[in-house]
Amino acid sequence: MKILLIRVSSLGDVLHNMPIVNDLLRHFPEAQIDWVVEEAYVHLVKLNPGVRQIFAFALRRWRKSLFTSQTRQEIKHFFTQLREQEYDLVLDTQGLLKTGIIMGMARITSTGKKIGLANGTEGSGYEGISRIFHTDSVAVDRHTHAVLRGRLVAAYAGGYTVDTPACFGLNKLYTESQPRPAWMPSKPYAVFFHGTAGASKKWPQDHWVQLAASLQSSDLAILLPWGSTAEKAEAEQMASRIPDAITLPKLSMQDATVLAQAARIAIGVDTGLTHIAAAYETPTIEIYCDSPRWKTEGNWSDKIINLGDQGAPASVIEVQEAIQKLLSPVITD
């Protein structure tokens, strides 16, 4: 069976579609699974050994030079490559016009099907016009979790039910037998994923400082990553208030993934790197401040604790208690 998965963006949403690959291969071990994804997230899909071929979709870049010959050649090459295969199943789990067009251009066998979402969930960017490219459309509850939504589309296509916790199946980029990256401390560390594009999603800096004080007995280094100039300034200001905290250098996406995977504990707001830590089942505390927890909370492992909700951020005490629960084997009175 040849299967094409279309989920082009964003980082968190691409990540949350990873369990589809594990589900399909569990039911169809010999399946060939290909994936269309925005070029910025190719590195992420490459972490899944169950994906055979990745088609890099570069719409974000193409839009900037749509009428140049080079861009037109790249677009032509993308669709030529895509159409070299015939698929038994084409799955669009994003439900946008652009992903529908990709689905429409993909070739299927005489018995093949193109299956996508019949509706969006609350707050999603679903575009109903995408249904014109489907042979079958799958309706989901308006409050369906981001991971479950894609799994339900694939389950409908494959004729099975979703009856196991999500398994992301990501390759580890770092093990203790390997040389440590230059930025990684020699002792175990906690990472604070404090940065996010939406100001309302942030947790107050004073809370992070109080949290760091409660970690002193754990003998963990505290690492502060950043992704923009503003976040770097925030990290440096935070580090000035936290003894021995380390403001990290600018990390590549691969190093940022290692950072999330190898942490003794990851604590973060609703952002992509926090979700990567949860996907690796790193002991993770997800703090929700201004986004609905039901959408993306890590619900597949007891190593993940989700706190707060839209309009009701977690308190410092709640996070401290979660830390004690996750680190209890190594923290003693």
Explain what this protein looks like in three dimensions.
By secondary structure, the chain is α/β, with parallel strands linked by helices. It folds into 2 domains: 2-158, Rossmann fold; 189-327, Rossmann fold (3-Layer(aba) Sandwich), CATH 3.40.50.2000. 35% of the residues lie in helices and 19% in strands. It has helices spanning 11-16, 18-27, 42-45, 59-62, 69-82, 97-105, 146-158, 205-214, 229-239, 253-262, 272-279, 293-296, 316-327, and strands spanning 2-6, 32-38, 53-57, 86-92, 107-117, 136-138, 189-193, 221-224, 246-247, 265-269, 284-288, 304-308. The N and C termini lie far apart (56 Å).
How large is the share of residues in beta strands?
15-25%
Total DSSP helices:
13
Numbering strands along the chain, what is their spatial order in the largest sheet?
A: 3-2-1-4-5-6
| Radius of gyration, CA atoms, in whole angstroms | 21 Å
Q: How many domain units? A: 2
Residues in helices, as a percent range: 25-40%
What is shown here, in short?
With 333 residues, the protein is an alpha/beta fold. The chain is built from 13 helices and 12 strands.
Question: How would you summarize the topology of this molecule?
Answer:
Elements (H helix, E strand, L loop, with lengths): L1 E5 L4 H6 L1 H10 L4 E7 L3 H4 L7 E5 L1 H4 L6 H14 L3 E7 L4 H9 L1 E11 L18 E3 L7 H13 L30 E5 L11 H10 L6 E4 L4 H11 L6 E2 L5 H10 L2 E5 L2 H8 L4 E5 L4 H4 L7 E5 L7 H12 L6
Parallel strand pairs: 1-2, 1-4, 2-3, 4-5, 5-6, 7-8, 7-10, 8-9, 10-11, 11-12
Helix pairs in contact: 2-7, 10-11
